[in-house]
Amino acid sequence: METVTRQRPPRSGTAGANLVLATAAFALTFWAWNLIGPLSRTYSEHLGLGPARTSLLVAVPVLVGSLGRIPVGVLTDRYGGRLMFTVLCFISIVPTLFVGLSQDSYGMLLFWGFLLGIAGTSFAVGIPFANAWYPPERRGFATGVFGAGMGGTALSAFLTPRLAEGLGVLTTHLLMCATLAAMGAVMWLFSRNPPEWRPRTEPALPRMAEALKMKSTWQMSLLYAVAFGGFVAFSTYLPTLLTTSYEFAQTEAGLRTAGFAVAAVIARPVGGILSDRIGPVKVCLVSFFGTCAFAVVLALHPPAEFPAGAAFVLIAISLGLGTGGVFALVAKLVEPSRVGTVTGLVGAAGGLGGYFPPLLMGVVYQATGAYTLGFVLLALVALAVGLYSVRAFRS
Question: pTM higher than 0.90, yes or no?
Fold first, then answer.
């Protein structure tokens, strides 16, 4: 009887329950991370910003959300996902609040937007957390389902402009602060670290150096910089692109951006499940070559609803499949005790992949009045990475 009591898992101590909690926390922190992008037109008109300054404002949260994944991944290996999710939810409240209070100052928006990137580091917590709850043959499924939490960007794109229009910008941010506090409490009270998880207590720098010596870390970083970086770039900059290039209202652009994000979110777990069945490399190749083809279509600046709308949805699906495929490949190539550190590095590369395109798009549009060159560059990069994947993972 005593043995049965000891082996009985604690509340929410099952893989499925913890995967759901982690996915929910990831979705909410990603919503917070993407609070500025959906309101870009509001800030642009209120502060009199040009395309380049607007794109900088939209892109700046991505920087910390990218680079911050490296130390957060290391800390997750040491302290576990339960504590790290809780801490990130509560810390993210501060920049969320001050972004709402800074709508009259471009400089303060940049500063607090930079720190808002902290919310985006939650990805480096959830991948090792979800990965360790499942056996190797189901880790593509686990990381794919967790990755669907990037649907927080869809929630932000759809709801943030409407909440700001109905309640005001500050009240919208206060509501997000309260939700983050509630999510932090839920993660602490109900989530559990995986039974097999053990903290890695050795110094962080040697662990990072160890991960950087692994060829697979650099390969996965390249692939994820295109797949996830492309998703982040579109999710943050698409509202601006649609309002400038296709002259949609901010709420209409938000609705279409939400559709883009939902398509990518649905495709991510599909990519993980397909990776378990046909192999992650094949999934990644479909992603990169598909992205190349649809970027070429968008470079031609087709009419708004069709074929442009269809091309945006298809490129979202392609990128979503790739994000699921890459981390299914990480789960196959990296032992579980190193996944947190490697995830931090690969996640940082993915985030950085999403940082530069909005800046480039803003400069290209300001210089040429069109986004053609930006889409051409995306097509070339996706094609090059696809061809590299064929060669690097031939076996």
Answer: no
